[in-house]
Amino acid sequence: MTTRAATTRPDRSAAGFDLAEPNGAEMARLTAGLTPEERRVLLDHGTERPFCGTLLDNKMDGTYVCRVCGLPLFRSDAKFESGTGWPSFFAPYDRHHIAHLRDTSYGMERTEIRCARCDGHLGHVFPDGPPPTSTRFCLNSVSMDFVAKGRPLPDPLGRGDPSTA
Questions:
Q1: Full-model pTM
Q2: Cα–Cα distance, 102 to 112 (Å, whole number)
Q3: pLDDT of residue 31
Q4: Catalytic site residues?
Q5: What are the residue boundaries of the structural domains of the chain, listed by start?
Q6: Residue 103 has what DSSP assignment?
Q7: Which fold has domain 22-148?
């Protein structure tokens, strides 16, 4: 069972991104092209198999964005090799871009992370990461797209979000 933490989210993040939730028509458009695996993970809170994700071994400079709404989630300079089989990061792009939820499924207690704008399931966060945060954000590759440094960030909602990685 997952329950959303009682936190207040600003309308805009410190990084300048509009955090308003997409409406029903926007979500239908944004999720129309998802593969069955992307739907299972992002919309049904599944997990991809370890060591299978396409972004696990990515070493390029750039930004990891939400696969559904394009919100920047993590910068490549916050990525580290955790040995867990999933892409891992020690700090988000902006703390308001990640929603934290209490997850008590499978007989354990952990913290699920979702995109703060579209509510897509990203993975989980754990308190065993490297300095300076000692936090490990453990992500599903199918939950993200990668934008190489210098390329424009996606703006599928047409909100005029800041545009370069």
A1: 0.90
A2: 6
A3: 97
A4: 138
A5: 22-148
A6: E
A7: 2.170.150
